[in-house]
Amino acid sequence: MKPYLLYSPSAKELAAMSAVMNFLLKKRGTIQIPESVQKLDRLKVCLEDAHQLQMLVCDVTTEGIIPLLEQVRQQNGGMKLMLVADGPVPPVQYTRPSILPTPLLWRPLQADPARDTL
Length: 118
What we know:
Blueprint: E1 4-7, H1 11-27, E2 35-37, H2 40-46, E3 55-59, H3 65-75, E4 80-85, E5 104-106, H4 111-117
Parallel strand pairs: 1-2, 1-3, 3-4, 4-5
């Protein structure tokens, strides 16, 4: 598993997050390329070994994602967990201690604010 994992059901959003993450990693002198995942089933497979993950940037609007995030947080309490959210999902669902996100990214995603947050 790669140490940086990006998940969104939107290909456009994944491309934007990947571009920002690649920029930041290169700036830090890291050659590691984050893995991008668009399907929930693939995300579940990638998270089977979550204790090695350094950062997960994850869409919280996908049905069934909240229990998965709680499980991942249990396995890896030190991981940076950055969530992508919007209005329909109330923050009380994903800003709980069992998930404990690092920061939040709000839709619509824009490169400059996302880069600043990351």
